[in-house]
Fold each of these.
Amino acid sequence: MRPGRLRHRVGMLAHRLAVLLVTGFFLLPFYIMLSNSLKPEVHINAYPPVFVFRPTLNHFAEVFRRYPFASYLLNSAVISLSATALGFVIGIPAAYAIARYALRRLITLILVVRMIPYVSLLIPWYLMAQKADMVDTYAPMILTHLLFTIPYAAMILIGFFEDIPMALEEAAWIDGCSRLEAFVKIVLPLTLPGIVAAAVIAFTYSWNNFLFALVLTGAKTKTLPVAVYSFLTADQVDWGGLSAAATLITAPVLVFVCFVQRYLIRGLLAGAVK
Amino acid sequence: MVKPPHSRTESSALEGAAGVEPTLGQAAAWASRLDPHLRVLFSLPSLLAFLVILGFPVVYMAYISLHEWPISPNLPATFLGLGNYQTLISSAKFWWSLWITLYFTALAVGGELILGFAIALLFHREFPGRSLARVILIMPMAATPVAMSLIWNMMMEPSIGMLNYLLSWVGTPRLLWAADPGWAIPSLALIDLWFWTPFMALIISAGLQTIPDEVVESARLDGATTLALFRFITVPLVRPHVVMAVILRTIPALKTFDHIFVITGGGPLRASETLNLYTFLEGFEFFHLGYSSALAVALTLIILVVSALLARLRARAWSY
């Protein structure tokens, strides 16, 4: 029995070690980001890297002092919240219609929308915004972000609506509700957790989106991803400031996503439904 | 829609639970008049939205691609017919960027599949802190890609970056990472691995959970080795999930933009200029709007064709 036990112990140890290695790999960039954002300037360019230091919040203060970071934050929030809200007002009914009436062509259309490379829409969108004199305004940004907030709302929620038994709605009809009333009064409240989770995922995508912002925003409407990118193109790369800015951008979505992590997988898989 | 008969008790129980009162006011009458049209009413807003935000721009893009298009809105465009497409077909840069796109996709998706499968197997076994580790795996997928790319850029810095420091532990020589033309695509694929391997792992993990314990147990009793178990039970049973995971990653990988743009901008020496990057740079760096639109049309067609082929592959994998 002894050699078998030993083999078991070694196997377990190897397993734990592998798990540690894997999680270490995925944590490493987050560790670098956080530690560089808190490192005093003198240690940032040190080699070999300094692991023990007295943390400072200077870089965070600098980011707000040197750049209009608060207004970037506001721009990102306005665009992402509007794109999510509008996308869901349009996407929720679409998801319900697909779930209840099996609209195969609408699903296919939504899948195609998800597939289109956004790079190819940049020129027409830029020219359209230019013609309408709306470059550097919120409207084109919010509208282009509907390209993913509507599909996210629809793809994730189809499943949630399908899970609600038809009998519930039928009971409401018998009691005199119209279909529309039954949808608003019964189906929507029951799917609320799903809607919230889907909204968090769609918001995260919009918050993270870089490509449209790169072309359609200007000084007035610059969003966080474009702002943090400009740290790199500045004459001298300020690693501390860059890490602090990256931390500020990433923190809110990471916190959100930890709350809805269960649904995130479902959201990412949403493209997979038949 | 069929209305199955309900027992009175069931429907009144539901009524109590959901708090529905039969209302017969004006609004209700109006709402019930909308009922027969609900299907159209609910799908119309999304159709209209797609027409405006996608349909029109796509047609406009195709139209621009037939022209030499000026940057200034006051200048006239010159009609070229299929001229831009002729340039594209005969351009070595186009074929190069197509090759780079495929190289990057193959490396990234292949690596993610192997590592993702391994991680799924690791996580299939119970261990303390597993749910925390799972949250850690999800974090890269949600973190802002541009921000994390900048952090990776910092880590890949040749003289003081963390990656070369870690390599020095094992005694390997320093690398230039993405700054070396030969290493640019592997370096970018490594970053892609960080972003998306967890996605692959989670899907394959879901597949592993569908394997019934009895199957594994009876194979063990029959004396199957761990390797044979993996080869003849695990792999065939999770195959549909693997195929799906590969498909779901391939399309986005073909379209990768953020970390390539941030870290190499397509360089050095075009070493990482994927079709996506080439299209962007032609449009917004050199302002060849017409030619860039032709590239955009080509890119869109390639993606749609690949998607259709992959969809067929999936239909076959899930058919039994």
Amino acid sequence: MTDFQSEQEFREVMDRTFSLMSEDPEIGPELRDADTPQRFEFTDLDLVVNIRAGGPDEENLVWEWSDDVDWEPKVKMAMSSQTANRYFQGKENVAIAIARRRIKAGGDVKAALAIIPITKPLFAHYRKMIAADYPHLEV
Amino acid sequence: MTLDQAAKRVGVVPATLRRWVRQGVIPHYEGAWTPEAIGHARVVARMRDRGHSLQSIREATEQGRLASGFLEALFPSDVSRYTLKDAAREAGLEPGLALRLVTGLGVSPEQATTVSEDDVQLLRYVAAVLASGFPLDAVLQLTRVYGQAMARVADAEVRLFHLYVHEPLMRSGSSGTEIAEQMHALSREVLPLAAPVLDQVHQRYLQHFIEQDVVGHMESDLDESAIDLGRMRVAIAFADLAGYTRLTEEEGELTAVDAVERFVEAVEITLPEQARVIKTIGDEVMIVGSDPATLTAWAVGFQRLQSGRPLPRIGIHYGVALYRDGDYFGRAVNIASRVAARSAGGEVLVTRSVVAYADSHLEFERIAEVKLKGFKESTEIFIARQRVPE
């Protein structure tokens, strides 16, 4: 079982992941266009992050590690930090993870479905980052 | 090219070609028989065979409706023809086998009496595959799969080119000659890119399915050796949209087609690696996977990702199917299809063969033992759901 060494490391990896998505010339603009605010709850660490598309003077994605945000999430996902790590490495099938209760999905689940193909190109970037800087998280 | 040579390529006598030029139905003829002029003349010949008058062909040409005829000039002109018997001898094959191969690869039986040098080369490739020891039955199936897959690709290329390039040009008010020139220029640029793209996509899928095959061998049951050659034990799912006909009637065809496209795309992007879409027929998708537990978990999770109508309905069976020409046939396939037809929107129905391999995260409620349409024995049907946590 691969585990993050600390809550701090998890946040660091996720911040870098969201930055990768936001700054990627293809993924970033597509997620901005999709305009789907999402709330992720990481159940084992009791952490919540809210993500939305950036406004005109902002980056493609804006995120806050809090529920104290001035926007409403359209999609809600709850999962463990391990599942998140497996998902971003392309090792977790969303539909199967939902059936097996590794991911709980709520809100506009069809909007979540639309985001899956946009984020798939991220997996290669994430795996590269993990291999280079966090090899203990490779699955 | 001389008039006589051009006439031979078009399949008419020289006097006919001269008459067509005089009557203005070959707009690109300017004293020489260029590939473009011959390409258009071949289209005219086909239209004449279908009973169209020269007057109506001239009008269609002026409006740009026959502009795609010029694209024929982009293809290699192979005039050397072999009889099928000669072609078979060249490739070292029996004439009967050569006929089966070329028809499988897209040459119609009527055209197969004579074939081109390129077709002969194609037969040499296939002969080399057979000589390497690849079984004849597998080679015949593979050539049919290649033929069908390429026919689908080429059909889509031509139809999409027509819808998104030719039609808009015709509506723009451009002259027939302008339309032909623009289409010719675009095609000359785009067409050579198709082969490397297809090659790369083929390589990628080949790598994927080799990996899946290796995994399948590792995980197959020991009793699999008892299954007849050409058959395999697979999990088969059929999924479609409940109330699709009603949706089409109430909301119109475009809305219904949009719903189907979103549904098929959602299936494709969520399927696990061990499963793939075999075919789609209207709003119905046939999926085959190696592992019944994984496919059923996918189906239950997929339903959880749905909201609003039309909801999908899914039926799954695990059994031995006959694999032929890239598709699956037989009793097991029919059972899966019938089970899907029994399900309601949002449901996943499965047979006992699936329950036997159940995922511990799912629960199965036996809802009926029914005689499925066309079957003598009754089949137990279960509804699959997420297990409620204790």
